[in-house]
Amino acid sequence: MTQDTRAYQSGFGNEFATEATAGALPQGRNSPQRAPFDLYPELVSGTAFTAPRASNRRSWLYRRQPSVVAGGYVPFAQPLWRTGALQGAALPPEPLRWSPFAIPEQPLDFVEGMHTLALNGDVEAQTGMAVHVYLANRSMDRRAFVNADGEMLVVPQQGRLVVTTELGVLEAKPGEVLLLPRGMAFKVALPDGASRGYVCENHGAMFDLPELGPIGSNGLANARDFLAPVAAFEAPGGAYELIKKFGGRLWTSTLARTPFDVVAWHGNLTPCKYDTANFMTIGSISFDHPDPSIFTVLTSPSDTPGTANCDFVIFPPRWLVMENTFRPPWFHRNHMSEFMGLVYGQYDAKPEGFKPGGASLHNSMVPHGPDAEAFERASGSTLQPQKLDGTLAFMFESRYRFIPTEFALAGGALDAQYASCWQGLRDQYKE
Q: Do residues 47 and 206 lie in contact, with contact meaning Cβ atoms separated by under 8 Å?
């Protein structure tokens, strides 16, 4: 790329202006009769034209060749990437848990290695989401991917990702997350070799920062800690394969040259990365265990106020200081459905059975909570200030029920003994 790929701009949803070649950005108008350097202006709109100004997302790209220059599309075979709730699927109201997913030995890149675990909603109605795990061991070279169905929130768990996008280059390691807008081309390189991580494919409203309410003006994720790339473009260098996800199916086309040819751009529709170490954790300093909503990083709202299409929630290192309180998550049944993953460390409510690279699913009104060991320890320990350190778990939470895929249920990682972790919780009622 022709620009320093380590350079970033900060701020979630900010209006940016950046150029890899001085003078490439037109001044005073977005689509002049002839753009500087004979570049092509191209508008990418992430929201409807008439969306309110505060929530309107779009970017102007000035590129060497417009993205309309592409060949015809033919189907691309990737049977493990699924979209939309499985209609009529019979799913018992049981908790589910998976061991860490093994990375296959056969060569797989980020697209080939995508394995859908659970789905809900309807991509055509722009509702719901899908949860995937990527199991990859080779970089995408002359191959690019466009997801026209939704934005992608990528949570690396093993290995760094270097993601080349139309607007520049982002690098993310475990502990950081990437947000890739709907409809924007990207490719993924694996500098550390075999890599694994989680993906939320959001078909609903775009992710945004949650409102802070009584918390005030500071707390949770700060907009300035989200980093967008500076403009960078790739030398032509031969043909590219372009894979596009459209209407729940994957298609492939051949481009005569690179799609990463944007010399300059300005706007507020951008890929970005976020380091979860910058999350300002809020918690109780007196008693009781607060709701996990205080750990929300990003939210995709639905048409029901306060009820998300999808929330991205993290459980990072933090102090526990509550007095006379059961400190781990209590036993509960929720309106929202919860898919959890563990990036590293140990989760306090499941100290043994929940491993990094694994996952769990508790659908709406399915009871869950700490296992018997965690309950006994938390109920009888002497409470002192305690630092939960060296751990990062996360949750994709949705108003819609998740339907597991065939791979999730029969791919070999499902823990058939999960429910046994609660069998030691005996009736302890004393008259």
A: yes
pLDDT at 91 over 90: no
DSSP 8-state secondary structure symbol assigned to residue 37: G
Q: Are 8-23+36-44+55-87+97-276 and 279-413 the same fold in CATH?
A: yes
Extract the tokens encoding 339.
């898919």
Strands 308-315 and 392-398: antiparallel
Look at strands 318-320 and 337-344 and give their pairing: unpaired
Q: In the predicted model, is pLDDT for residue 226 greater than 80?
A: yes
Q: Which residues are catalytic?
A: 289
Residue by residue, DSSP assigns 342-404 as: EEES--TT-TTT--TT-EEEE-TT--B---HHHHHHHHHSPP--EEE-S-EEEEEEESSPPEE
For the chain, give every domain's residue range: 8-23+36-44+55-87+97-276, 279-413
| Superfamily of 279-413 according to CATH | Jelly Rolls (2.60.120.10)
pLDDT given for residue 64 in this prediction: 97
pLDDT per residue as tens digits for the range 297-311: 999 999 999 999 999
What pLDDT digit, counting tens, does each position of 376-419 carry?
A: 989 999 999 999 999 999 999 999 999 999 999 999 999 999 99
- Cβ–Cβ under 8 Å, residues 424 and 377: no
CATH class belonging to 8-23+36-44+55-87+97-276: mainly beta
**46 phi-psi bin (left φ>0, alpha ψ -120 to 50, beta other):** alpha
Give yes or no for residue 84 having a pLDDT over 70. Answer: yes
Residue 216's contacts (CB-CB under 8 Å, 6 or more residues apart) are none
